[in-house]
TrEMBL record:
Zinc-finger listed as a keyword: no
Documented EC number(s): 5.6.2.4
Protein name: DNA 3'-5' helicase
Claim: Plastid is one of the keywords in the record: no
PROSITE patterns: UVRD_HELICASE_ATP_BIND
Catalysed reaction equations from the record: Couples ATP hydrolysis with the unwinding of duplex DNA by translocating in the 3'-5' direction; ATP + H2O = ADP + phosphate + H(+)
Protein keywords: ATP-binding, DNA-binding, Helicase, Hydrolase, Isomerase, Nucleotide-binding
Residue ranges annotated for the UvrD-like helicase ATP-binding domain, each copy included: 3-273
Lineage: Bacteria, Pseudomonadati, Bacteroidota, Flavobacteriia, Flavobacteriales
Positions bound to ATP: 24-31
Similarity-based family: Belongs to the helicase family. UvrD subfamily.
Length: 591
C-alpha cells in the first residue's frame, strides 16, 4: 500500500537498503519519497525496540510538513523525529551530553539570533568594520575559525568571549560542540547509531561541513545498523554563502569510510511542462536529462523576457502579467512574484495592492517577529496567535512541548503541577483572553497571564528578561521602520500565522520547494542575481546559474522574467543584466 502510488524510480529509492544518495530534480516528488521512505522504514522497526528514524530538514516549515503528511497517510509518527539539523544536534547531543564538555558543564542557553547580531554590530563598530563587512562565523573541524581575515577574527574572538561570559552558545558553537562531543566521547556516537536505524537528510546540498561530519560519524559507528538517506539537487545549492556544501558522491563516500553508498536519481518531473524544463535546464551544472511526466507535460507554455522596461513602469508590467494569468483562469494563489532581495517585498506589495485593489496578495514573509524563531517568546507567541483547529492540533502540541522544555532550560524549574503536560498547557493558552487591540500589548498581556498561571516569576531569570526584551525590540523596530510598513494591530499579527491565499510575493530563497502555475521574477540584475557577495568573494557564474535554476523551476506553465532598467549602485552606476541572461540565445514569447 505504501508503494502503490509511486513511480518506479521513487519505489527503488524507498525500498533500497543501505546508504543512498538520491539526486532529485525539481518537481520529482522528493518530499513524497522521503515521507514514503519513513513510512516504509517504520514497518521494519521492532515495536519492542527503542529504535527511531530521523528526518533532518533545512527549515522548520519542512520538518512540520513531514509530520503533516505522515499523519495524513494515517502513519503513527511517534517513532519519527523530524527537525532541522541544528535542532537535532541540540536535542540529541548537546542537551543529554553537555555535562561532558567543560565549556557547557556549568549550564548554557541558546543565544537569541537578534541579541547575537546586536553584539556583532557593536564589535564591528569597535574594530572599525563597516556594518556590511561580512564575517564567516563557522568553525573548522579542529575548532579554528573558518574566517581568514585578521580583523574579523578579532571580532569573533571578542564575540565568543562575550558569549562565554553570558553562558550562551550560538548556532555555530552548537555544531562545533556537538562534533567535539562525538569525537571525544565515542560512546555517544554508538548510542545514537543504535537509536536511529535511518537518518534522512533533505536538501543535503545545503549542509555545512560540520554537519556532514556529525551525521557521518554516527552512521559509520553503527557499521551498518544505521543507514543514511541523502536527498537533494546540487543545482539548487543556493546557500553556499551560509556554508552549504554540495558534496559529490566521492566526497560523501570518503566521509563514510568503508561503508558503501549508492547513488540513485529521480529524473521525472511532475510539476512543469517540457518547455519550462528545457528552458531552465540551460542553467544546469549537473547535466541530468529531466523529463516532464505530469499531466501538463505537453501543455503550451509561455516564457517571456523583458529587459527594456524602466523600473518606473515595473509595477504596471507585473500587474499586466498577473491580470493575464487571472484572465486565463489561473487562481491567485497559483501566481508568484519573486523579488531579488527581501527588503523589496514591502514596496512591491504596497504598489501592487494599489494597482490591483480587487486582487488578494500573500506577503506573509513580512511578519514582524520572523527573525526570532528560536527565541522562547517567539515560540510562545505562535501559540497565542494561532487558533485551535483540528488540522493544526499536532503542530500546536509540538510547539507546546518546545515551550515547556525551553522554560525548564531557562529556569531550571518546572511549571506548577497543573501545567506539566502539553494538553493542560494548551488548554490554558486557549483559555487566556485579552482586550488589547495592539499586537505588542496583546502579547505582553497574554504572556503575563501565562507566567502567573504556570508559576514562573520571570524577574528572577535574567535570560528570560533579555530574550523577552529582544523579542519585542525586534517587533518595535520593524513596526517603526518605513521599509517594512507592517501593521501593528492584533488582527494583523494573527493574520501572519493564518494560511493566507492570494498572489504570493516572496524571494526565490523563500519559495524554494514551492510551485506555481505562473512565476514572475524581476530584478534579474548583476548585484542582485548573483548577489554582490558572490561577485566579490564567491563564484558569480555558478551562483547566478543556481538562482536562475531555482527561480525558473518553480513554474509549472508560465514564466515571466524581467531585468528592468534604471536601477543603480550606491555610486550611481547602472546595474547590468545578469550575464547568464544577457548572453542567452532563446526564442522568448510575447503576450
Amino acid at each position: 500500500m505504501i508503494l502503490d502510488t509511486l513511480s518506479d524510480q521513487q519505489k527503488d529509492a524507498v525500498v533500497k537498503d543501505g546508504n543512498v544518495l538520491l539526486t532529485a530534480c525539481p518537481g520529482s516528488g522528493k518530499t513524497r519519497v522521503i515521507i514514503h521512505k519513513l513510512a516504509y522504514a517504520l514497518k521494519n522497526i521492532d515495536v519492542n525496540s527503542k529504535q527511531r528514524i530521523v528526518a533532518l530538514t533545512f527549515t522548520v516549515r519542512a520538518s512540520e510538513e513531514i509530520y503533516r503528511r505522515l499523519n495524513a497517510m494515517g502513519i503513527n509518527s511517534n517513532r519519527v523525529w523530524s527537525g532541522t539539523l541544528h535542532s537535532f544536534c541540540l536535542e540529541w547531543i548537546i542537551k543529554p551530553y553537555s555535562c561532558y564538555l567543560p565549556e557547557l558543564e556549568n549550564g548554557y542557553l541558546i543565544a537569541d539570533e537578534t541579541y547575537a547580531s546586536d553584539i556583532i554590530s557593536e564589535l564591528k563598530e569597535m574594530h572599525k568594520l563597516k556594518p556590511i563587512d561580512p564575517i564567516n562565523f563557522r568553525f573548522n573541524r579542529d575548532g579554528t575559525f573558518a574566517e581568514p581575515k585578521t580583523i574579523q577574527k578579532r571580532v569573533l574572538k571578542d564575540y565568543h568571549e562575550r558569549l562565554q561570559t553570558e553562558k550562551l552558545i550560538d548556532f555555530e558553537l552548537l555544531l562545533y560542540y556537538s562534533y567535539k562531543l562525538l569525537t571525544k566521547h565515542p560512546k555517544i556516537k554508538k548510542t545514537l547509531s543504535n537509536i536511529f536505524s535511518l537518518i534522512c537528510v533533505d536538501e543535503y546540498q545545503d549542509t555545512q561541513d560540520l554537519l556532514y561530519a556529525i551525521i557521518s560519524s554516527i552512521v559509520t559507528t553503527g557499521e551498518g545498523s544505521s543507514n543514511l538517506f541523502l536527498v537533494g539537487d546540487t543545482d539548487q545549492a543556493i546557500y553556499a554563502s551560509l556554508g552549504g556544501i554540495a558534496k559529490s558522491l566521492e566526497e560523501i563516500q570518503e566521509e563514510l569510510n568503508t561503508l558503501p553508498i549508492e547513488q540513485l536519481t529521480l529524473s521525472g518531473n511532475y510539476r512543469s511542462t517540457q518547455r519550462i524544463i528545457d528552458f531552465y535546464s540551460i542553467f544546469q551544472t549537473n547535466p541530468i536529462k529531466i523529463e516532464a511526466i505530469g499531466t501538463n507535460k505537453d501543455v503550451d507554455s509561455i516564457i517571456t523576457y523583458n529587459n527594456t522596461i524602466d523600473k518606473g513602469y515595473l509595477v504596471d508590467e507585473i500587474g499586466r502579467l498577473i491580470e493575464h494569468s487571472l484572465d486565463n483562469g489561473i487562481p491567485e494563489d497559483e501566481i508568484c512574484v519573486l523579488v531579488p532581495q527581501w527588503w523589496l517585498i514591502t514596496t512591491i506589495t504596497k504598489q501592487l495592492r494599489a494597482k490591483l485593489p480587487d486582487v488578494n496578495f500573500d506577503a506573509s514573509g513580512l511578519a514582524p517577529m520572523s527573525k526570532n524563531r528560536n527565541n522562547i517568546w517567539y515560540k510562545l507567541s505562535r501559540l497565542f496567535l494561532t487558533q485551535p483547529q483540528p488540522k493544526i492540533y499536532s503542530l500546536r502540541y509540538k510547539w507546546c512541548s518546545e515551550v515547556i522544555e525551553n522554560f525548564k532550560e531557562h529556569t531550571n524549574t518546572e511549571f506548577s503541577e497543573q501545567y506539566q503536560t502539553e494538553r493542560n498547557v494548551l488548554k490554558l493558552i486557549n483559555s487566556i483572553t485579552s482586550n488589547e487591540t495592539e499586537g505588542i500589548d496583546y502579547l505582553n498581556d497574554c504572556f503575563d497571564q501565562f507566567l502567573e498561571a504556570v508559576g514562573i516569576d520571570q524577574t528572577i531569570y535574567a535570560q528570560l528578561l533579555i530574550n523577552r526584551k529582544t523579542f519585542f525590540d525586534v517587533i518595535k523596530s520593524r513596526l517603526e521602520d518605513p521599509t517594512f510598513q507592517v501593521p501593528s494591530d492584533i488582527a494583523s499579527f494573527m493574520s501572519f500565522y493564518r494560511e493566507m491565499s492570494g498572489v504570493v510575493i516572496n524571494t526565490c530563497v523563500g519559495v524554494k520547494g514551492e510551485e506555481f502555475e505562473t512565476v514572475i521574477a524581476y530584478g534579474l540584475l548583476n548585484g542582485y542575481i548573483p548577489h554582490w557577495n558572490d561577485i566579490f568573494t564567491g563564484d558569480p557564474v555558478a551562483a547566478s546559474k543556481k538562482l536562475l535554476y531555482v527561480i525558473c523551476s518553480r513554474a509549472k506553465t508560465n514564466l515571466h522574467l524581467i531585468s528592468e532598467t534604471g536601477r543603480q549602485t550606491k555610486k550611481g552606476n547602472p546595474l547590468e543584466i545578469t550575464p547568464e541572461l544577457q548572453n542567452l540565445n532563446f526564442e522568448f514569447d510575447e503576450i
